[in-house]
Amino acid sequence: MTLGVVLAGGTSARMGRSKADLPFEGRTFLDRVAFALGAVCDEVVVAGTSNGYWPELRDEGEAHRGPLSGIVTALGRGSGVLVCAVDHPLVRVETLRGLRSLADDRPVVPVHDGVPQPTTAWYPASALDHFQSILDAGGFIRRALDDLPVRWVIDAEWTQWGEDGSSWLSIDTPEAYAALG
């Protein structure tokens, strides 16, 4: 089973309002990301606050500890997870399908211009204990990936899926939102 997880637990401080509820092309950011994950995954949940339509997966611990907290909570359900941040409304189903197709016992993380994109990625259940220890030590997702074998997906691979990098474009400021048109 593959669990699709919309990472929506942040405070939206830079945006100044909930990114999940922002409209774009007839749907909210949350719905766009959740429907894309739903095309690839057996079940979709929201790590954070939902709009009432999607099931919520609430963190057990301290609030607003970043994407790693939502990933740890989701991995605690016992299956691998395909995650996408709520502020990635341009995520492509083909890209999610491509990431899922590479899934094994390692995280599968795209890299764009040399920068890992850990909030649109696959994480295996076997990463739970390591991720939990990094989270407990106050660490973040990029730190958690430092100590694991990771299946990095480079530009030459994801462009074959028709991806142009938009799937991990973060729309997290009013200026970025206005630029969407």
What does this structure look like?
The structure is a single chain. The protein has 181 residues and is α/β, with parallel strands linked by helices. It has one domain (2-179): Spore Coat Polysaccharide Biosynthesis Protein SpsA, Chain A (Alpha-Beta Complex), CATH 3.90.550. The chain has seven helices and ten strands. The protein has helices spanning 29-38, 67-75, 93-101, 128-136, 141-146, 155-158, 174-179, and strands at residues 2-8, 23-24, 27-28, 43-48, 56-57, 80-85, 108-112, 115-116, 120-123, 151-153. A five-stranded mixed beta sheet has the order 5-4-1-6-9, with helices on both faces. Strands 8-7-10 form a three-stranded mixed beta sheet. Strands 2-3 form a two-stranded antiparallel sheet. A hairpin with a 2-residue loop joins β7 (108-112) and β8 (115-116). It is globular and about 40 Å long. The protein starts with a strand and ends with a helix. 42% of the residues are buried.
List the helices and strands and how they pair.
Elements (H helix, E strand, L loop, with lengths): L1 E7 L14 E2 L2 E2 H10 L4 E6 L7 E2 L9 H9 L4 E6 L7 H9 L6 E5 L2 E2 L3 E4 L4 H9 L4 H6 L4 E3 L1 H4 L15 H6 L2
Helix pairs in contact: 2-4
The overall strand count is 10
- Give the ordered list of helices and strands: EEEHEEHEHEEEHHEHH
Strands of the biggest beta sheet: in what spatial order?
Answer: 5-4-1-6-9
CATH level 1 class label = Alpha Beta
Distance between the termini: 37 Å
CATH architectural type? Alpha-Beta Complex
Helical segment tally? Answer: 7
pLDDT average, as an integer?
A: 91
What amount of the residues lies in strands? Answer: 15-25%
Task: Using the coordinates shown, work out and report the CATH topology.
Answer: Spore Coat Polysaccharide Biosynthesis Protein SpsA, Chain A
Query: So what's the oligomer here?
Result: single chain
For the sheet with most strands, the description reads: 5 strands, mixed
Structural class determined from secondary elements: alpha/beta
- The helical percent reads 25-40%
Low-confidence stretches: none
CATH superfamily (homologous) name: Spore Coat Polysaccharide Biosynthesis Protein SpsA, Chain A
